[in-house]
Design brief:
alpha+beta, 7-stranded mixed sheet, two-stranded antiparallel ribbon, about 35% helix, binds 3,4-dihydroxyphenylalanine
Length: about 350
C-alpha cells in the first residue's frame, strides 16, 4: 500500500490546506489501489470507508474544527472523496478482476496427466518417409513438381499418343474448359511429369525420386480414391541398363517388405518406358484358397528415347530407367488397412493407432 502522510487530527493544526493535501493523497491511493481479491476489497473498504477508523470517515470529524468559512467547501470535498472511494469499490465488486494464479499456488510436484494423446504421424507420412529413407540411402535425391500440370508435361512429353485413353475425362481431373486453341490444364494424374521438369531444368546424370500427391477422376470405393500418393524414380546416365533397374527395385522391395519377400518382375506397357515391367510381391493370406496372391506395387522401365528427345537429352549417349509406385497400397498391406478412405477422413480413432510407430 502506498505510503503517504495521513492527515492527523491535531485540532490546533487543522486547516483547509492540510485537508486538501490529505484528500489529494487519498485520491491517489484510491486510484492505484489493487482490488484483485475479495480480501483486497475488504481492506480497501475498512481503510477508507470504515465506520470507526476509515480515513475518510475520520476526516469528516475534522470539519467542526475548521474555520467556519471553510467548512462548507471541506464538506463538499470530502463528500466527493467518499463517493469516489465507494464507486471504485462498487465497480471492483461488480467486475472482480480474475485472480492471477501465483506460482506459489501451483504444485509443480504433481505428476503429469498420462491419458493425453500427443498426436501421431499419418500412416501415409510414415510409409512415405520409409520409402524415401530407403532411396536416400541408395543415393537418390528428392525432386518436386507442381500438382497442377499442363497437357505437355503430364502427357505429351511422356510420349502419350494424342488419342490415349488416359487423357479421357474418365481418368483426368481437368480444371479448365476445353477450347481448341488452348493446351489443357489439369491436376496431375501421376508423378511422372516431375521427370520431365527435372530433366528440362538440368543436365544428366540424374538420380532422383519424386514423392507427391496425384489426382484421378475415379469413383470412390474402398480401394480407389480421387487423390492418392506416388513416388516416382528416375535415373539417367551413360550406360544405365535394365539390370540396374531390377537391382534397385529388388533392393527397395526387400528393405520395405522384408528380406524374405517373394517378388515377381513381369513385363508390361507404359508409353514413356520401353521395355516396361511391373513388380509384384506375394502377399500371404490365410483365408485365400491359394494361400495368398500377387500384388502389383509399381510400374517401371527404361526411359523411352522419345521422352529423352522431348527434354533435349541425346538418347544415343544417355539411357535411363524410371519407376513409379503408389504409396497407399503398400501402406494398406503393411498396416493391414482394409479401406483406402480411412486415410483421408482424419478420424482420430484411426490416426491414434499409429502413435509411436517410427517413421
Ligand atoms: N506413371 C505411372 C502411373 O501412374 C507409373 C509409372 C510406370 C511410372 C512406369 C514410371 C514408370 O516412371 O516407368 O501409373
Amino acid at each position: 500500500m502506498q505510503v503517504w502522510r495521513v492527515f492527523f487530527c491535531s485540532k490546533m493544526n487543522t486547516s483547509l490546506e492540510k485537508l486538501k493535501t490529505t484528500a489529494a493523497n487519498i485520491t491517489e491511493e484510491i486510484c492505484s489501489a489493487k482490488l484483485t481479491t475479495a480480501s483486497d476489497r475488504e481492506a480497501f473498504r475498512i481503510r477508507f470507508l470504515g465506520q470507526k477508523r476509515g480515513l475518510i470517515t475520520h476526516l469528516f470529524k475534522e470539519i467542526p474544527h475548521l474555520p467556519k468559512e471553510d467548512r462548507r467547501f471541506a464538506g463538499q470535498l470530502l463528500n466527493a472523496l467518499r463517493k469516489e472511494a465507494q464507486t471504485t469499490l462498487d465497480s471492483a465488486n461488480q467486475n472482480p478482476p480474475v485472480d492471477p494464479i501465483s506460482l506459489s499456488e501451483i504444485d509443480l510436484t504433481l505428476p503429469g496427466r498420462r491419458n493425453q494423446w500427443p498426436g501421431s504421424r499419418h500412416p501415409i507420412t510414415l510409409a512415405l518417409s520409409k520409402i524415401t529413407d530407403i532411396f536416400h540411402r541408395m543415393g537418390f535425391t528428392i525432386a518436386e513438381g507442381p500438382e497442377m500440370e499442363d497437357d505437355w508435361h503430364n502427357f505429351t512429353a511422356l510420349n502419350f499418343p494424342k488419342d490415349h485413353p488416359a487423357r479421357d475425362m474418365q481418368d483426368t481431373l481437368f480444371i479448365d474448359e476445353q477450347s481448341p486453341d488452348q493446351p489443357r490444364i489439369m491436376m496431375r494424374t501421376h508423378t511422372s511429369p516431375v521427370q520431365i521438369r527435372t530433366m528440362m531444368a538440368g543436365e544428366p546424370p540424374f538420380r532422383l525420386i519424386a514423392p507427391g500427391r496425384v489426382y484421378r477422376n475415379e469413383t470412390i470405393t474402398y480401394k480407389s480414391y480421387c487423390l492418392f500418393h506416388q513416388v516416382e524414380g528416375l535415373v539417367v546416365d551413360e550406360g544405365i541398363t535394365m539390370a540396374d533397374l531390377k537391382d534397385t527395385l529388388y533392393r527397395f522391395a526387400r528393405a520395405f517388405f522384408g528380406e524374405d519377400v517373394k517378388l515377381r518382375y513381369r513385363s508390361s506397357f507404359f508409353p514413356f518406358t520401353e521395355p516396361s515391367a511391373e513388380l509384384d510381391i506375394w502377399w500371404d493370406l490365410s483365408d485365400h484358397p491359394d494361400g495368398g496372391r500377387w500384388m502389383e506395387i509399381l510400374g517401371s522401365g527404361m526411359v523411352h528415347p522419345n521422352v529423352l528427345k522431348a527434354v533435349g537429352i541425346d538418347p544415343e549417349r544417355y539411357t535411363g530407367y524410371a519407376f513409379g509406385m503408389g504409396v497407399e497400397r503398400p501402406a494398406m498391406l503393411h498396416y493391414d488397412i482394409k479401406d483406402i478412405r480411412l486415410f483421408y477422413e482424419n478420424d482420430v480413432r484411426f490416426l491414434a493407432q499409429f502413435q509411436g510407430i517410427p517413421g
